[in-house]
Amino acid sequence: MLVVTQPESETSVSLILYAHPFSSYCQKVLTALYENTTPFEFRMLSPDNPSAGAEFASLWPIKRMPVLRDGEQTLIEATVIIEHLDLCHRGPVRLLPEDRKQALRVRFMDRVFDNYIMTPMQRIVGDHLRPPDARDPHGVTEARAKGELDIHGQKQVRIIKSKITVNGNQISIEAQFLIPLSDHNITIPKIVNQKIATEIEVGVNATLLRE
């Protein structure tokens, strides 16, 4: 059984968080709350807690978690909630730098991780949290992989669009992309340069097994 605790306080708690700990976006807000031992009430969003789900839906009909209730104010989106905590419930640990240039860098990293790392991962998690009859039968989602491609000692950073398929305990990854030979200092001899393509098509097809 998963138990989520929150800091205790003798004063009344004005903060109510509607969330699920498996969500990376909810984890961001929980981290901010725990970092400053900020008192709050946690209302788990799960089929076992329908009353919390009904309150959540009434506060934010789009039903995207997390949602923070601060007195009469309702806040949505993890990044906004964290900045609200830093402004209105500030603790000893600053959640955003005072320097505006440094704060901009923090916001940049926040958006990169949310949009390009956690969002593709959450698609798979979200699919498994749905009722069995509401799941995508193929569990297909699109993602992008970033890394260094090393050919003949010439390294190039590439971002490759790929397709991830979840089927039972198998995760399949498929991708196709083109590599310009000039990117890796590969020269085509003039005598055959009309017969050899200047780009190579690469295909990836891998299967991972989950225990």
What does this structure look like?
The structure is a single chain. The chain has 211 residues and is an alpha+beta fold. It folds into two domains: 98 residues, 3-Layer(aba) Sandwich (Glutaredoxin), CATH 3.40.30.10; 73 residues, no CATH class. The strands form two sheets. Strands 2-1-3-4 form a four-stranded mixed beta sheet, sandwiched between helices. A four-stranded antiparallel beta sheet has the order 5-6-7-8. The protein is elongated, with a radius of gyration of 23 Å. The two termini are 20 Å apart. The N terminus is likely disordered.
Compose a concise summary of this entry.
30% of the residues lie in helices and 31% in strands. The chain is built from 4 helices and 8 strands; from the N terminus they run E-H-E-H-E-E-H-H-E-E-E-E.
CATH overall fold name of the largest domain: Glutaredoxin
Strand order of the largest sheet: 2-1-3-4
Structural class: alpha+beta
Molecular shape: elongated
User: How many DSSP-defined strands?
Assistant: 8
The fraction of residues in strands falls at: 25-35%
Spatial gap, N to C terminus: 20 Å
- What letter string, H or E per element, gives the SSE order? EHEHEEHHEEEE
- The residue ranges in which pLDDT falls below 50 over 5 or more consecutive positions are 1-11
Give me the CATH superfamily of the largest domain: Glutaredoxin
Instruction: Report the helical percentage.
Output: 25-40%
Mean pLDDT: 80
Estimate nothing, just give the exact number of structural domains.
2
Largest sheet: 4 strands, mixed
Overall CATH architecture of the largest domain: 3-Layer(aba) Sandwich
Radius of gyration (Å): 23 Å
Total helical segments: 4
* CATH class division of the largest domain: Alpha Beta
